[in-house]
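Why predict the complex rather than its parts? Because the way molecules touch one another can change local conformation, and only a joint prediction can capture that. The input here totals 471 residues.
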Amino acid sequence: MPADPVRAAHECAAPWPYKQLDVPALRAAGHPPKPFRELILKVHQRCNLACSYCYVYEMADQSWQDRPLTMSDEIRDAALSRFADHARRHNLAKVRIVLHGGEPLLYGTDRITELVAVARRSFDPQTQVRFGMQTNGALLTEQVVAALVKHGIATGVSLDGAPADNDRHRRTRDGRGSFAAVARGLRLLCRPENRSAYAGLLCTVDPSTDPIACYEQLLGFDPPAIDLLLPHANWQTPPMRLDTTATPYADWLIAVFEHWYEGGAPVRIRLFDDTISLVLGGPSHSEQIGLSPSGLVIVESDGAIEQVDALKSAYAGACATGLHVQHHSFDDALDHPGIVARQIGMAALADECLVCPAVEVCGGGHYAHRYRPGTGFRAPSVHCDDLLVFTRHVYERVADDLGASIGSSK
Amino acid sequence: MNVESTPTESWAPLADLSQEPLNFQVSRGSGIVEQALSRVLHSLHDKDGVISSFTSFISEA
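Output of the joint prediction:
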């Protein structure tokens, strides 16, 4: 066993990639590291909501309990300085900094304002720095939204559809639903003078809900974009299933897809856009589907440099790299096996995936959803059956559309 | 542009824009597919094509 306790925990929980991935051999075989273009800052460790499915608080990793409540100014400055160095070293023309938590608005608008100012000073002029935030939306007030607009922070809001459906999972600690508060915040973002701060809505799929009612509810908030997220799950903690169908998530997604497609796609839905792009031979830009390399890194409130936080759903310490912004560069993180595994496309996939006809489209699904104890992350997605049915539907729909058009033009 | 109209065993990509110039005028499929093809064309010329987090954000491509 290695002396490094972080590495030892990884090797025990996830033999692939931590025992079996040969990073030097991969580099020699022509898999260069891809620089990070997105930094996610965990500026606050607590949340004003207690959502039932939250991967930060309700799943395997409980490291939030041991970290500082908020990110100190010293850690903030070190993280931003490291990211600016990284951008300089790799000549990055564009980067993005995303504020996250916990609930990032608990960090306070004054500190958010200061963070943006420090970030803008840290980067060279040739690097365009964009800012984003993913919030539950319940703390959006006129003053907060005005600050987001002023500082150019594109804000994504989590909402799970119709009031009763949303409030079943997205509640306060005392059990009250969050829909009404979030709706107030979204109405502020919808105002013309605030639209520049409105990035979109993020909805976690619950197959027991009415998909069209959910979609129409989201559309009612006039979002620039929507994304639909399969719930975080893995082979140890599988997703909820229904007795009535073998592929409830695919059925739900297909219902929304058809309604959206037939309606002329009035809003961009990232999962759908990416799936269509993939069947047309293009790339994906999301973690849920496709084989594009990951270009993101996380800094926790204590300064730990970590992998994508959805891995908290897999096992305790699954996000850890053992690196820290006050002692290590982001380039150091590029050779961490967990980071490498997210940048090598097909080479990270299970044997079952490699012989699947859908592999170029599905890409093995979300990395966090592949986790299987005893194996690690080289396994098919726990959502595999649903992904196959959904992607096949999109493939055939687009093929029909292209074929019909070609035929009609002859 | 080479377009295959039926799925194959290996789910081959339905279009091949890899040899087309960035200003190629896409005129295939419905408005949705046409827009998607246009995005694919631009993404093939985008060195920064990596996945990002928090999926309510959309690529500018």
